[in-house]
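Hi U.,

Before I forget, here's the chain from the pilot set. I'm dumping it here mostly so it's searchable later in email.
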Amino acid sequence: MSFLRRLLGDHTPDGFAGSLDAGEDVVDSAQVEGGGHLVVTPLGLWIPDGSGGARRVGWHLIGKAAWKDGVFTLTESAESGTAGSAVVLTDLTPVRFTLPEPARVPHHVRLRVDGSVRSRHRQEIGPGGGAWFVQRKVPGRDGTVLQVRPDPGTDVTLVAAIAEQVAAKLAHAAE
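Structure:
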């Protein structure tokens, strides 16, 4: 990155393959071993997409993020359905990024993921399963969304029915 760009406040790394939205400023970044960058913005974490490009994962769709021994592990959640106004999530396969010089990227990710959570509740549902119910702030939108992430093997239909009732109660309480 050129000194002049950094001096003027542009923290976008040289060679960054993403396309930032208007007003989406780079908070921090780290080069990924093997190519690409992890880039932190107010709207999410940009990650290499495997084809030479980059894509943004919104803070509300980061299920887990871990930093250990120079490796950043990201578990992204996909919206797999709805239950009333609640969103049902499914965790994707974790992706690992080796960061030779992480800067403060792991710290910023933790702050922003934790900052997106307004409340969380773990509910056991039937034998051997359960679900997390989490209210989260979605970057760039007002209010919160109720997300539910069933454990693998838990009856998703039952979890969705419960989530729909919880979402209705939360909406009624907000009126």
